[in-house]
Amino acid sequence: MAEIVPLIHLQHKLDHLRSKKKDIKVIATNGCFDILHIGHIRSLQKAKNMGDILIVGLNSDESVKNLKGDSRPINNQNYRSEMLAEGGRVRFR
Question: Which domains does the chain have, with CATH numbers?
């Protein structure tokens, strides 16, 4: 089940999961994911298949603006995080 976990709570969440399964394999990736496209989906699927848990870091709105230009992001950080969580690609296996 996908969930949005604030960075300040991530270590606690991982510790909890590791208390249930010691040999859990955690995979991490990150990106802007401003305009979600098939390349994102394929990349996330490959990453997901590499381990038990996929953590997706999401660039802040300010970071996206710095990387992509003043007209970006098109979708704000909250919207982008919801799209990723609900998109069916960020799931615990």
Answer: 7-86 (3.40.50.620)
